[in-house]
């Protein structure tokens, strides 16, 4: 197979591992900087062009689209889809997952467990918004934040009001969620490929830190999921239309709740903590589903 990895940096761990895993299995792998691509949008012969070269003959692509480049990255993925190239994650699913509000609304519609979440436009409605999620302490999140950036724990109503007013003063869109105290700074990253969780790790926040992101000093170890947690993760990925996803879950007093569904989950933490060849499993999934003549309706897991 001929596979393109859409990544801005070939030296990143996730990109390197995917390239290595593909080449170990005899595939031809190219790393393409999607921001350097440009497109010929035509009905009869659509093209993606990279450094003056038509990108032709690819069987599959693996999008590794950065959060800040979602719009253009998804446009490139969509152009490959127009060219009938199989994508590990399709453009619509990527853009859907990047909109945190839309993501939560889709998951809620599917009956998947979530923390109580509020969303409002006007600062005049702050008291009602806080009451909706059960009052302080609450977690306040920027819709556009990643890796724990733009996530604030407000322990009092006064603190929550100040943070919300500050964010809204910057014209930033925010979510307000109940604080799952019983999680004690721990969450679970479930790595889903196809319709299965292939690896899972427990991430524990640094001392005094309620966010568990490894980028913020958290640690990670392998963990065994309950059947309910496994089902929640696979249902969440399926609801978002993602074939490859990192689903972040908290253990709450009322069962597992989904915090986020990530369309470009990093591989380093999950591979290091679980010793699972996650990159290889992604390549194997493509090998089963991206052969000539196969359609999206006949995907094998």
TrEMBL record:
PROSITE patterns: ATP_GRASP. Its cofactor is Mg(2+); Mn(2+). Mn(2+) 2 binds at residues 260, 262. Mn(2+) 1 binds at residues 248, 260. It comes from the Bacteria. Residues 104-287 form the ATP-grasp domain. Mg(2+) 2 binds at residues 260, 262. This is Probable alpha-L-glutamate ligase. One of its GO terms (molecular function) is ribosomal S6-glutamic acid ligase activity. One of its GO terms (cellular component) is ribosome. SUPFAM superfamilies: Glutathione synthetase ATP-binding domain-like (SSF56059). Its EC number is 6.3.2.-. In the C-terminal section; belongs to the RimK family. Belongs to the RimK family.
């Amino acid at each position: 197979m001929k596979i393109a990895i859409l990544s801005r940096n070939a030296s990143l761990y996730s990109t390197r591992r995917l390239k290595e895993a593909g080449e170990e299995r005899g595939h031809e792998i190219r790393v393409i900087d999607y921001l350097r691509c440009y497109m010929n949008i035509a009905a009869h012969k659509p093209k993606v062009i990279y450094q003056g070269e038509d990108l032709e003959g690819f069987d599959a692509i693996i999008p590794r689209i950065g959060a800040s480049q979602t719009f253009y990255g998804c446009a490139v993925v969509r152009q490959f889809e127009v060219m009938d190239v199989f994508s590990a994650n399709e453009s619509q699913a990527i853009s859907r997952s990047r909109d945190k509000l839309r993501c939560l609304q889709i998951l809620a519609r599917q009956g998947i467990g979530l923390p109580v979440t509020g969303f409002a436009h006007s600062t005049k409605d702050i008291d009602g918004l806080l009451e909706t999620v059960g009052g302080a302490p609450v977690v306040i999140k920027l819709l556009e934040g990643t890796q724990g950036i733009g996530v604030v724990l407000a322990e009092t109503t006064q603190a929550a009001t100040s943070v919300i007013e500050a964010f809204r003063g910057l014209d930033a869109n925010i979510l307000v969620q109940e604080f799952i105290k019983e999680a004690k700074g721990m969450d679970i990253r479930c790595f889903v490929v196809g319709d299965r969780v292939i690896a899972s790790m427990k991430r524990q926040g640094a001392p005094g830190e309620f966010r568990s992101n490894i980028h913020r000093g958290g640690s990670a170890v392998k963990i065994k999921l309950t059947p309910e947690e496994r089902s929640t993760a696979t249902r969440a990925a399926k609801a978002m239309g993602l074939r490859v996803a990192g689903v972040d879950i908290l253990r709450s007093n009322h069962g597992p709740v989904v915090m986020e569904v990530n369309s470009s989950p990093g591989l380093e933490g999950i591979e290091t903590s679980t010793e699972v060849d996650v990159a290889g499993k992604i390549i194997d999934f493509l090998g089963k589903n991206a052969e000539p003549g196969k359609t999206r309706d006949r995907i094998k897991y």
